[in-house]
Structure formats: structure tokens, C-alpha cells
């Protein structure tokens, strides 16, 4: 399996265009933010102390949350290519087990998603500091990395199960385009949750990466919130969190951090079991 993982890592990072396009969704979000979204949002918080810092941490937390999705999906492209060119059949004609072959794709994609997301965390922190913000504390950074690990794990199993149904590069490319286009909306990055219709907010609340984004925002925005809402009533901070997707309200109850963490773990386990079922049916 180690050889298969190394092969998939080399194939991914050797294809510079593939790496770029797997990060395209992230680049689009950052580009929109730098061009006009950032100015529009910051203009709403100019009267608040540290408003720019608050908005920067909000957007960067969202960017970090979606990076595992786009990068893992890009890494899964080699599985589709191997099926297209019958390379997977060549592997299976050897003593390699089907589970070992699938494990090579899963572990390789997970490593790719994790590494690129950690790099994104570093770049996000540099951007925040250069714009007048503060570095995360050691504890805060550890919490962010733990959330990233869980986010990458859930993304890997869910996307492996999804991509295993594709038998053509065109179908895979179409799905990648749709995911890259919608991911910003489904994590509440382009438009804050408070400005969205109720039905859309409901969809976001059941979308697993949105919970990862919420957890990251709680950690990364905490120092900025202390500055911005130092002299404001607690209700003002609560309303802000609900509007910006820093907290989720489900039937009048605020979702706690451990509930979102448990939800991501359940999603990971569910798609892991579904992937095992798919492999057992010899369809991967």
C-alpha cells in the first residue's frame, strides 16, 4: 500500500495544472474577497474596533474549511484516470487486493488534502498578521489543526465514495466544477448566513464542511471578537455569530462545538462504512 500511496502522491504533485485546478475554488474565494467582498464586508464593521481583523479571520476560516474538499477531490482524479485507461485492472491482475488499491487512493488523497490545508493555515495566518491581526496562540493553533484533520478525514471518505461512482473523466470534471462553484455558498462564505433564505440556511446546517467552517471560525475569530465586542452586550455577540455562521441555531438550540465535532465524526464513519460496502461489491 505504501508504494501505491507514493505513486498517487507523485502523480498529483507532478501535475502542476492539476494542483492549481484543485485549488481553484479556494483561489476564487480569495480573489472575490480581495477584489470587492472584503471591502463590502469591512465597510459594515468600520465603527467596530478591530472590525477588519474580525472580517479577515472570518473569511480565512472559511477558506481553510473548503481547502480539504477541493484538494481531496482533485487528488481523487487519478482514480478516475486509472479506471479510464484500465490501469486499475492491471493492478488487480497482480496479487494486490482491491482493498489495498482503494486504500492507496484514500490515504494518498487524505495526505494531499491535509498537507495543502496546513499550508493554507500558514498562509492565512501570514495574511491576517500582515493586515494588523494577531497570530493564533499555541492552543488555538492546535485546535485549528485538529479541526483540519477531522475535516480532511470526513472529506476523504465522502469524496472517495462519491468519485467511485464515476466511470468517465467528463462526469468527474463536471462534478469537480459544481463542487468548486457551490462550496463557497454551502459554507456561508460568499454571503453570510443571516442574509440567506431559511431553506438555504437549513441546507448549510446539514452540510458537513459548514460545521468545520463554524468550528474554525469559533477558534480563529475568538481574539477578534474579544476586541470588537468588549463593551457590547452578550446578545450583540450572539446575534453576530448567528448572522455570520459562527454559531448554528437548530430549532432554537445553539449547536455546541462538541455536537459539530461528533457530527463530523459520524459523517466520517458513515462514508467509511459505505466505502467498505462499495469495495466489497467490487465496484471500485
Structural description of this entry:
α2 (about 15-20) crosses α4, α4 (about 50-75) runs antiparallel to α11 and α11 packs antiparallel against α14. A two-stranded antiparallel ribbon has the order 1-2. It is elongated and about 70 Å long. The protein contains 14 helices and two strands. The chain is an all-alpha fold and about 280 residues long. It has one domain. Helix content is about 80%, strand content about 0%.
Which short descriptors sum up this protein?
single chain; 284 residues; 2 strands; elongated
Structure annotation, total helices: 14
Class from secondary-structure proportions? mainly alpha
Q: What is the subunit organization of this protein?
A: single chain
The overall average pLDDT, rounded, is 90
Structurally, the number of domains stands at: 1
Q: How can the largest sheet be summarized?
A: 2 strands, antiparallel
Number of strands: 2
Sheet with the most strands: spatial strand order: 1-2
Low-confidence stretches: none
Order of helices and strands: HHHHHHHHHHHHHEEH
Give the termini separation. 16 Å
Dominant shape = elongated
Q: Output the radius of gyration.
A: 20 Å
Q: What portion of the residues fall into strands of 2 or more residues? A: under 5%
Q: Please give the share of residues in helix.
A: over 70%
Summarize the structure.
With 284 residues, the protein is mostly helical. The protein is built from 14 helices and 2 strands.
Amino acid at each position: 500500500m505504501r508504494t501505491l500511496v507514493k505513486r498517487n502522491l507523485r502523480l498529483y504533485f507532478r501535475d502542476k495544472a492539476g494542483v492549481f485546478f484543485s485549488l481553484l475554488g479556494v483561489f476564487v474565494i480569495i480573489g472575490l474577497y480581495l477584489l470587492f467582498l472584503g471591502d463590502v464586508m469591512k465597510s459594515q464593521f468600520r465603527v467596530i474596533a478591530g472590525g477588519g481583523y474580525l472580517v479577515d479571520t472570518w473569511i480565512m476560516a472559511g477558506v481553510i474549511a473548503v481547502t480539504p474538499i477541493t484538494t481531496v477531490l482533485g487528488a481523487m482524479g487519478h482514480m478516475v484516470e486509472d479506471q479510464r485507461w484500465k490501469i486499475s485492472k492491471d493492478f488487480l491482475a497482480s496479487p494486490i487486493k482491491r482493498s489495498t488499491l482503494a486504500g492507496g487512493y484514500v490515504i494518498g488523497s487524505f495526505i494531499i488534502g491535509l498537507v495543502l490545508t496546513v499550508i493554507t493555515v500558514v498562509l492565512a495566518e501570514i495574511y491576517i498578521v500582515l493586515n494588523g491581526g494577531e497570530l493564533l496562540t499555541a492552543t488555538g493553533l492546535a485546535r485549528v489543526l485538529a479541526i483540519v484533520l477531522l475535516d480532511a478525514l470526513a472529506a476523504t471518505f465522502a469524496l472517495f465514495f462519491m468519485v467511485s461512482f464515476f466511470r468517465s473523466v467528463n462526469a468527474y470534471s463536471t462534478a469537480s466544477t459544481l463542487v468548486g462553484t457551490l462550496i463557497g455558498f454551502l459554507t456561508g462564505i460568499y454571503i453570510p448566513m443571516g442574509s440567506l433564505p431559511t431553506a438555504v440556511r437549513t441546507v448549510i446546517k446539514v452540510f458537513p464542511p459548514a460545521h468545520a467552517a463554524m468550528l474554525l471560525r469559533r477558534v480563529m475569530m475568538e481574539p477578534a471578537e474579544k476586541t470588537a465586542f468588549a463593551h457590547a452586550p452578550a446578545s450583540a455577540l450572539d446575534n453576530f455569530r448567528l448572522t455570520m455562521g459562527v454559531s448554528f441555531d437548530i430549532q432554537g438550540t445553539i449547536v455546541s462545538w462538541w455536537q459539530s465535532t461528533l457530527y463530523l465524526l459520524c459523517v466520517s464513519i458513515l462514508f467509511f462504512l459505505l466505502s467498505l460496502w462499495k469495495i466489497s461489491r467490487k465496484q471500485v
